[in-house]
């Protein structure tokens, strides 16, 4: 009987500690009210472990949130439909899309599908469905239209999430702006074309000079051999 009471109290305390409804003072006062010495010691030990676990979890969450804020993109969870409706999305979605996360989640005035460039929508859909079918990670590069109307290139990596009993649940992933890289690559490609043209011109000029030298040599030989 005492063991059963311990298990129930332990579960209750775990829930209250995790939800932040109990302070350390509340817990100590609660434990002091217990008359059974064995049960009191067990709960003290259990509470100490729970408290340490909760503190570690809080620290892990702090580290995760710090890392998240320093990422140049945003994390998401969304439905697998052509609107790609967000179920969860990090605050950093604002810097990439120009829309606040509340516009996606609460007001539902916009979806990711709405801002994907029309020329890339079919490509995105097909690639993601391939990942869902194969239960594999997918990687995409496509254009979006920001809230201010500007076009931006983004890179996305996502994966379908499954449950053993329920099957497919949703998509989770990460999206970041790579416009600067795409622009740089485009400039490098343009420069390469200019260099290639210049090289072709130089080669042709050299060949022309060789031909002219041959002609001059022939003329000189003819002049010399003429009596």
Structure report:
With 227 residues, the protein is an alpha+beta fold. The chain has 3 domains: 2-68; 72-177, PAS domain (Beta-Lactamase); 180-227. Helices cover 61% and strands 19% of the residues. It is built from 8 helices and 5 strands. The chain has helices at 2-18, 24-32, 37-70, 93-97, 101-105, 112-115, 118-134, 179-225; strands spanning 73-78, 86-89, 138-145, 151-163, 167-177. Helix 1 packs parallel to helix 3.
Can you give me a brief rundown of this structure?
This protein has 227 residues and is an alpha+beta fold.
Give, in order, the helices and strands.
HHHEEHHHHEEEH
The tally of beta strands, per DSSP, is 5
Which CATH top level class of the largest domain fits? Answer: Alpha Beta
CATH superfamily of the largest domain: PAS domain
Low-confidence stretches: none
* Main sheet summary: 5 strands, antiparallel
Strand content: 15-25%
Q: Please name the CATH architecture of the largest domain.
A: 2-Layer Sandwich
Mean pLDDT across residues: 75
End-to-end Cα distance, whole Å, is 134 Å
Counting helices, strands and paired strands, the structural category is alpha+beta
Helical percent range? Answer: 55-70%
Q: How many helices does DSSP assign?
A: 8
Strand order of the largest sheet: 2-1-5-4-3
> Within the CATH hierarchy, at the fold level, what is the topology of the largest domain?
Beta-Lactamase
């Amino acid at each position: 009987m005492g063991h059963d009471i311990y298990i129930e109290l332990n579960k209750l305390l775990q829930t209250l500690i995790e939800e932040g409804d109990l302070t350390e003072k509340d817990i100590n006062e609660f434990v002091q009210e217990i008359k059974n010495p064995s049960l009191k010691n067990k709960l003290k030990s259990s509470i100490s472990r729970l408290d340490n676990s909760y503190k570690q979890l809080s620290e892990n969450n702090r580290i995760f949130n710090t890392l998240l804020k320093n990422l140049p993109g945003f994390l998401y969870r969304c439905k697998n439909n052509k609107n790609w409706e967000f179920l969860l999305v990090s605050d950093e979605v604002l810097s990439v899309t120009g829309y606040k996360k509340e516009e996606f989640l609460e007001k539902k005035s916009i979806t990711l599908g709405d801002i994907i460039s029309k020329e890339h929508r079919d490509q995105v859909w097909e690639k993601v469905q391939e990942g869902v079918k194969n239960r594999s990670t997918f990687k995409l590069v496509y254009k979006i239209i920001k809230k201010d109307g500007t076009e931006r290139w983004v890179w996305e990596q996502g994966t379908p999430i499954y449950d053993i009993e329920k099957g497919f649940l949703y998509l989770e992933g990460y999206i970041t702006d790579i416009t600067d890289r795409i622009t740089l690559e485009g400039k490098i490609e343009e420069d390469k074309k200019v260099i290639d043209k210049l090289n072709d011109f130089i080669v042709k000029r050299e060949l022309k000079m060789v031909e002219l030298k041959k002609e001059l040599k022939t003329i000189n030989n003819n002049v010399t051999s003429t009596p």
